[in-house]
């Protein structure tokens, strides 16, 4: 038992005489330096970062900032790559849309030329019907009525629609009432 007591007393002596006073002195010295304007924590980190084994566990603000910058650079690089992929996809979409627009413009040009041709043909037909209407107006109403009664109803209605109202009335008066009613009905549609 005596050995154990001696062993305890050596440990107690070490803590009471060396360890506690040293810790107290370090704390007191840190407080005094803090009041003097010295940043004790940063200075301690700086000193400890130079010690080979302890430098792995303690990092200075510069090292922390460097690590944060590296992380930010990696994050921004990943975002940049993602944006470049997105830009490539959008450029492909724009190119396909431009091709589609060009094909639609070509189709519009084709349709416009077809429309112009149809309008020209329609103007020719319109001119022909006006010419026929003038022929009927030059005839006697009885003769014009006989010719119109021989035509199919839809053609007769078209011919009548290109005549003046007075001539049209004279010709319809010469036709049988059922046929005249049928033609008036077709003209009004």
UniProtKB/TrEMBL annotation:
The keyword Transmembrane applies. The keyword Thylakoid does not apply. The chain crosses the membrane at residues 12-36. SUPFAM superfamilies: MgtE N-terminal domain-like. Keywords: Coiled coil, Membrane, Transmembrane, Transmembrane helix. Residues 110-188 form the Magnesium transporter MgtE intracellular domain. Residues 66-121 form a coiled coil. This is Magnesium transporter MgtE intracellular domain-containing protein.
